[in-house]
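User: Structure please.
Assistant: Input sequence and predicted structure:
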Amino acid sequence: TLTADSPTVASMAGILGNPQMMAIMGKVVKVGAIDMLDQDGSLSALVGNRVLLQAQGADLEDMSAILGTMDFAKLAQFDQ
């Protein structure tokens, strides 16, 4: 799921924008160039401080491989 420029993103920014908070909330895994929060097999990240990226429903290795193919820099510039 990708959510850009919404109140949901703002509410998650305090957690996903802070590595220390992410570590408190769950395991932090590196996918490509970004850190993602792993909470019981569900991955979440904040991209470019405006796009909330969430993945769930598959094996962690499979999700990481698929997400690793994404261009996070371009995703951060989506619709701008």
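The mean pLDDT is 92.
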